[in-house]
Amino acid sequence: MSDRQYHGFTLIELLIVIAILSLLASILLPSLNRAKEMAKRMACASNLKAVGLAQIVYSNDYGRKSPPAVWQGPPGSGTWRNILYLYGDYVDSKEAFHCPSVDHYLSSWYHYGQKHNIDVPLEYRTAKPPGYPDWQAIHFNRVKNPSSYYHIGDSANLPRWPKQWMTIRKTGGSPRGNDAVCLRHGVANMWFLDGHVESCSAYRLGDLGFIYMLDKNGQEVDDF
Predict the structure, then answer these.
(1) What is the model's pLDDT at position 107?
(2) Which one, 1, 8, 125, 129, has the greatest CB density within 10 A?
(3) How large is the C-alpha radius of gyration of the chain?
């Protein structure tokens, strides 16, 4: 019989193991969180691509015109998203309008806004509809440089404005923030008319003409 003796870890050894595990966790967790947020940002971009494609398909059915931001008439009143999902068959699920980085639905499942008409050149717009003179559709064929023309993007889905986010506006709307673009990923995903999605930093949004934008907490971004 062997007289070898076995013993467990000493207290010092256990403390060393715990310290090593804590150090590894502190190193790995931020990387895991960044990877998780990156995955959400990519899923958001995928949703925007799907919604953008739906706009293109809609425009092919309606003389290369986009859905108007607001609509009143048959089949019913609503927004551009209602037209694509509720009244049309262009988007399969309302989840396409939900950004996975938003963890609250509030009273709306809309997290993307269409470019506000006030930011659209007059020559791109259709005739003014009765009742909603500021909400014309856009003639896609008239857009001179589709690769630099953003049309849909991350809008400010925040508790302060639970029924907005229908449009995005360079000035943030009135009151400020009502139609704001939102850098909810640290950047804002924007769909351009040529079909690509770009993750735009505050500096890039500034280059696109935005003078007001919000971060994911609803605070104004002023460093751009």
Answers:
(1) 45
(2) 125
(3) 24
How buried is residue 91: exposed, middle or buried, by Cβ count under 10 Å (0-12/13-18/19+)?
A: buried
Does residue 208 form part of some domain? yes
Token digits for 108?
Answer: 């709306």
Cβ atoms of 191 and 212 within 8 Å: the answer is no
Low-confidence ranges of the chain (pLDDT < 50): 1, 107, 162
Indicate whether 190 belongs to any domain.
Answer: yes
Helical (H) or strand (E) element with 112: strand 112-115
Whether 153 maps to a domain, the answer reads yes
With contact defined as beta carbons under 8 Å apart, do 68 and 135 qualify?
yes
Q: Could you give the C-alpha distances from 180 to 8, 51, 149, in angstroms and in order?
A: 61, 19, 17
Residues 6+ positions from 76 with CB-CB distance below 8 Å:
82, 86, 87
Residue 186 lies in a domain: yes
CA-to-CA distance for 60 and 207, rounded, in angstroms? Answer: 30
Report the alpha-carbon distance of residue 33 to residue 119 in Å, rounded: 36
Using left for φ > 0, alpha for ψ between -120 and 50, and beta otherwise, residue 101 falls in alpha
Nearby residues of 204 by Cβ (< 8 Å), 6 or more positions away: 187, 198
Count how many domains the chain has.
1
pLDDT tens, residue by residue, 140-179:
999 999 999 999 999 875 555 545 567 899 998 766 767 8
Q: How many CB atoms lie within 10 A of CB 18?
A: 10
- Neighbour count for residue 89 (Cβ, 10 Å): 10
Segments forming the whole domain that contains residue 167: 38-215
